[in-house]
Design a protein that fits this description.
The chain is an alpha+beta fold. It has 3 helices and 8 strands, in the order αβββαββαβββ. The longest helix has 21 residues.
């Protein structure tokens, strides 16, 4: 009797497996082809009073015979090109010669940035200008920090940005006859 029950159980299990194995399911698919993804572009040109739009030039500002308390500035325009939105300007000031020196420890920089479509071209009041995070640092401090990039702010809707790099010689400068050379690197990032 045990053998008969065991035989019937084996036949039942095999029957269930055969029914499940022969069951058919319908399926179909649809394909979308030709999906293309393209990266955007980003470029930057700069200009000042004597240089047309370009990607760079040599020695836009030279100041000789600096004295304690003297101030000056270098005004640059930036134009973002390309297709990327929400682009920010960056700046880095890097000493290339003259370090260490007393002059580098007493030459301070503050950078202003204006990205409005109607900027104050005279820079008399700095009404729309924002002081960036690069404010009051000496060239020696910037060099010691590894010449980091500082955010200027987001470009105007027309892709422009206006930069005024103001420099001041501390009144405590006493060493004479020194020179420092620096590179100003402007950038654009998203």
């Amino acid at each position: 009797m045990k053998r008969i029950i065991l035989s019937l159980a084996v036949i039942a299990i095999a029957g269930i497996g055969a029914v499940g194995a022969t069951r058919a399911y319908f399926s179909t698919s649809a394909t979308v082809t030709g999906n293309t993804f393209s990266s955007g572009t980003l470029g930057l040109t700069i200009s000042d009073a004597t240089h047309p739009w370009t990607t760079g030039w040599t020695a836009s500002t030279s100041s000789a015979d600096l004295y304690p308390g003297q101030t000056g500035d270098m005004y640059l325009e930036m134009q973002k090109t390309g297709t990327t939105p929400n682009t920010k300007g960056t700046i880095s000031l890097a000493a290339t010669a003259g370090l260490p020196s007393d002059l580098a420890s007493h030459l301070r920089f503050t950078v202003y940035f204006d990205a409005t479509d109607t900027y104050d071209v005279t820079r008399a009041s700095y009404t729309n200008w924002a002081t960036t995070t690069l404010h009051g640092y000496t060239l020696a401090q910037l060099s010691a920090a590894g010449n980091p990039k500082y955010d200027l702010g987001t470009f105007a809707s027309d892709g422009t940005g206006h930069v005024d790099i103001r420099w001041t010689v501390d009144t405590s400068l006493t060493t004479q006859g020194q020179s420092v050379t620096l590179n100003t690197v402007l950038g654009a990032t998203q």
